[in-house]
Amino acid sequence: MKLSFYSDTAELNNRAFLYGDSVRVSFFVHHSKIVLAEECYFFLMASMRKMRMAIPLSYTLEFFQNLFAEKVIEAGISDGVINFHVYRNSQESLLSKREISFYFEVDSPRNILEMQRAFEIDLIKEINVNTNVLSGIHVHSPENIYAEVYAADNELDDVIFLNPNKRIARTTIGNLLFLTGNTIKIPKQSEGAFVSPLMESFVTFVHQNKLAVIEEAELIAFESQKAEEIIIISDEKGIFPVMKIRNKTFEKTRFTDIVSAWSASFA
């Protein structure tokens, strides 16, 4: 089931359409409840501030909870991902003062807290991603579009981006987690990784329950070949085990057990 909703009448001359002047944050519906609502809300507010958007006074946590309860849950969607876009309107005023509108669509049914199908991925070396303050938020990214086409042309599910220092940053859809022994290594946000409320919830659960040691690290490309298990956590798409990178194959047993325990904690 697909569901979409505009805050105003859709205009083809809005700045999201013309210039990619928008930010995107995912909210999550799980068993007819909005989960991680506060974390996603604060990520949205932070993303809008970084893009110097005028945040309406009406944009409170309660506003979004009521909006999604009415438009999503009451529409019969019990599990899914709400991909929420905020964009600047086309008006004759300073960019930082312009009113904003929103659009969201819901991808359902999908349990965002469960492991999805296995991925085959590879490194992409033609382009890299930046490490500045905007790299961690979801904004228009020609790098992602190019890499998505590259992956499809090469029969891959996703690709690993490196940053200008030739270290691992992220994939087109989310962040990478590398499990070796009892340690889960995650590229730092300063390396070009996404800010991810979903991943932060997962690693907090792992840390609090002492299921593994979490290490934010600067990882060279070869780290992808040393890991025993790898997953991708994407706020937009979900959680995917990596089964193959080039000639190296990976297991998914331990990450599957950890993800299952984390998912059960939301019951």
UniProtKB/TrEMBL annotation:
Assigned keywords, A-Z: Aminotransferase, Transferase
Span of the signal peptide: none
Alphabetized GO MF terms: transaminase activity
Pfam family, one: Aminotran_4
UniProt xrefs under InterPro entries: Aminotrans_IV, Aminotransferase-like, BCAT-like_C, BCAT-like_N
SUPFAM superfamilies on file: D-aminoacid aminotransferase-like PLP-dependent enzymes (SSF56752)
Name of the protein: Branched-chain amino acid aminotransferase
Organism annotation: Kaistella treverensis
Lineage of the organism: Bacteria, Pseudomonadati, Bacteroidota, Flavobacteriia, Flavobacteriales
